[in-house]
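hey team, just a heads up i'm posting the complex here instead of the shared drive bc the drive is being weird again. everything in one block, sequence lines first with there labels, then the predicted structure for the whole assembly after. its three chains so it's a bit long, scroll down
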Amino acid sequence: MLVLLALPPLVIALGQPFYLDLVRRIMILAIAAVSLNLILGYGGLVSFGHAAYLGIGAYAVGILGFYGVTNGWIQWAVAITASALVALAIGAVSIRTSGIYFIMITLAFTQMLYYLGISIAEFGGDDGMRLNAKSQFAGLVDLNDPVAFYYVVLLLMLLAVFLTYKIVKSRFGMVLRATKSNEARSRAIGFSPYPYRLAAFVIAGAMCGLAGALYANHTNYITPGLMSWQQSGDIMFMVILGGMASTAGPVLGAFALLLVEDLLSGWTQHWQVILGPLLILSVIFFRRGLAGVLYKPDA
Amino acid sequence: MRMPIRSLVAGVAAAAFAFAAPVSAQQKIKIGFITTFSGPQGVMGQYMKDSVELALDHLGRKVGGLEVEMIYGDDQVKPDVGVQVAEEMLKKHQVDFVSGIIWSNVMMAVMPVVTGSGHIMVGSNAGASPLAGSQCNELYFSTSWNNDQTPEAMGKFLQDSNINDLYIISPNYQAGKDMVAGLKRYYKGRIVEEIYTKLGQQDYQAEITQLRSKNPKAVFVFLPGGMGIQFLKQYDQAGLRDQLPLYSVYTVDEISIPAVKDAAVGIYETRYWSPDLKNPANQRFVSDYRKKYGKLPVFYGAQSYDSIMLIDSAVRAVKGNVKDTKGMVAAMRKANFNSLRGPFVYNVNHHPIQNFYLLRAEKVAGGDIEMHIKKTIFEKHKDSYYQDCKMKW
Amino acid sequence: MTFALLFEQLLNGLQFGVMLFLMAAGLTLVFGIMNFINLAHGSLYMVGAYLAVAATQWTGSYVLGVVLGLAGTLVVGMIVEVVALRTLYERDHLDQVLATFGLILFFNELVAIIWGRAALFASGPAWLQGQIDLFTGSRYPLYRAAIILVGLVTAIILWYVVTRTRLGMLIRAGASNRTMVAALGVNIRLLYTVVFGFGAALAGLAGLMAGPIYNVQPGMGELILIQVFVVIVIGGIGSIRGALVGAIIVGIADTLGRAFLKPLLGTLISPPAAESAGPALASMLIYLLMAAVLAFRPQGLFPARGG
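-- predicted structure starts here --
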């Protein structure tokens, strides 16, 4: 099965180099969507501030590079750790609330980070900052090679899906999902949802931070816009569209949304007038998202 | 776990087959033009595209004597989308040139991608300072300006007019701060207050109230796009337009005037170009633009028109051999075309050395409101960053 | 800082708050009664502004333009509800978010296709131009004073409807216990459509009043939408009283923050630091406020739901 997966990308690589970049970008955002699905789809935590970790991961790479630290291992480790820490801080405060209030609080934190990002001049502020060199993994892989980079992203995406799958199927995951479907009952059995949710939140944040680091390497340019609520909304839509029924659903959602966007914007500048109703129709007819269309969801 | 993989394969395979690769013959030249078409800023992109189309009409739909295919891209005001669009143009459509781009942050992301692939980029709006300074590039040419030049001109005018007690309002982001820095490079008078507003802010009543309480003699603003339209309306409604002179940059232009009408009358701007600039190329451009589109062109469009003419002059010079990049660079440096701003000379950093004028929005017979040139402030002005550029030629 | 300045800024804050209230009232009702998250509320605001501008141009009269604009928005709102949203009431909030986001994209482009992307010219009527003299000696734009008046009058009308009429009783009942209301035999579908239409009309009113001072352009709704959400979270979901109080608090806090935060900070820390910290803090202020309110009263100030 995994071999099947590796073949199509090879085909594209031989034919049209542009698609390598397109699919790579989609896969990076898919990692972000998968991480959000862990807390949103399985944990019931609707975080409108998830893009913050994309930004933190990206800026970790950017800022370290700015100061001369280009070692990929260090950069990515910092990206993941920083995101995890921020997630811990934000989560500790936000998870005490629920429902719309949780959404708004996570949104508020992201907005604050975004406005903070715009006003700091050293790192370009709103103009953003350029990445002078990609993360260096001496000897192991050269990210400047588009194909090598592509496979790195592919590998990491599969790992993200696999990791999420394992978490969801584990005892920890079961408690998490229980707290989503019936919080009162899980409390009655003796599980306090708070630590489980917080842990999931931190893991999701860390994973998204990695996506951010990859993103910085992909575009070679980092702007605070990565942390905006619109970006959070985009990731959320990928998760919802793809279907929260499965661990790979978000990947489908990412591919669907971004490919359709690319295709439609080639046709007409008014592509949003088509995309809008498409989204509405997909919500009305695909009750479990796109993943629900292709196969039966796990419970 | 098998299921997700299957659907993943389905998705990726579908993508692979959905896009057949178009292969084109090389008897024509392809130019990619990146701007913004979606969202409220899409109006600027539309003006730029209209001007490019007019340029192509004037050239008989041939650039440098060759058939031309223009490929337009929408950056959605996002640097990463801009990069994706540029990559699509370079790798999928195999364009020979990339031009356009409104926003500095998008430009900073896209320029290295285009020049890194060995192609020439002609920027037709964004004027980020590093591109005029330390990051100047042999393959990057600008037909617009450096961001700081326009407020520098305003600063000089205010300084020379001995205007004191100036109140400054600008949005709190990089360009907003750069504009004020440019102003202060030439303006040494007394500044009452410097206010940085939120990017995208709609309501300025609080700032206007504050402003009034400080009793300034003049107000300077940089509020591009929607921000400016709202500010102008509110400034007028507060009764200040007739009482307190307003000097702006990138705020009052042919796009914002129809949205505010009388609220723009009497306001000053500085710019390198105006529809009423008197030279044959510009007069033809403005009157043909009016005939074709029913309105006045805006400076974003004038720059885009010039970018096409610049590319045309380069292709002509190498007699259609677009693989001769060195030859085209040499030709572009000569800037042997009739620019809408009059005489056009490049500085060592591939940014134009040009005049800057004081403009005022005035009502003409018939009720329309137009920008008119009042005086020349700078002649053959160089930007402040060229000395950081290491290029020599 | 003089009293006159402070008073004028308070007025500004009140006016901004009133606009937020008109938007928040509709949104909180729809959320509270129908348990429906409507991201496209901002689009109804935009539709109101556009229809009013178009109607004014067509009929030549401002008043007619307002009436037609309001009626038009009401109709559009009800059509949207019947056609697109009915099927979504039973669905997950997230599905509603995605679907209404699709609506936003659709409306923004539709408006751009019909009227173009450039901002439309919208002006108030001649009899609302000019300024009035305040008792403090400063002058205040007449149009904004009119907005405050209209907003307060609307608030009073809403209060009357909600507390003194049968419809209002149904609305309040629906906000605190929807299933019970349906069980009692009330035509829930009709109630929903009416409530949604109400909300749409209120948003349209806010939009057409905003036209002359803000921009009439595609996407104008999204700019104000986040602030409206902050208002209903602070005020409490489903409560009109909460929407009013929340809106005024947010309006005044935001306005005063922008006006006075930097000078205030300048007295505590060095002026250059206050230069950058001031505006940054001012933009974050309403979010900090919301976080603070939620820390003490997680359900908002006046939650409609019992228990």
